[in-house]
Design a protein that fits this description.
The protein has one domain: Glutaredoxin (3-Layer(aba) Sandwich), CATH 3.40.30. Helices cover 41% and strands 22% of the residues. The protein has a four-stranded mixed beta sheet with strand order 2-1-3-4.
Length: 81
């Protein structure tokens, strides 16, 4: 399973999710929408909206999952790591 967190630096919900990831010492790929404009399009094309935080979960042989709510992301992380 590969996970990528789309985030923005000023977003308090993103900071909360990142704090949990750091606390649990989880390997995570990050994509900062503040740094790269093309990531906004990538997020919209993949998940359907520009909202952050968004956790993109890709697993071989399964459909990609895009989680948008910080609490749902945290619950997923705690369940799967």
């Amino acid at each position: 399973m590969k996970t990528t967190l789309y985030h923005m630096g000023h977003c308090p919900y993103c900071k909360t999710v990142k704090k949990v990831i750091k606390k649990l010492n989880i390997k995570m790929d990050y994509k900062d929408l503040d740094l790269h404009e093309k990531l906004r399009k990538e997020l919209i094309n993949g998940g359907g909206k520009q909202q952050v935080p968004c956790l993109h979960i890709s697993e071989k042989g399964k459909s990609d999952v895009w989680l948008y709510e910080s609490q749902a992301i945290i619950e997923f992380i705690k369940r799967n790591y």
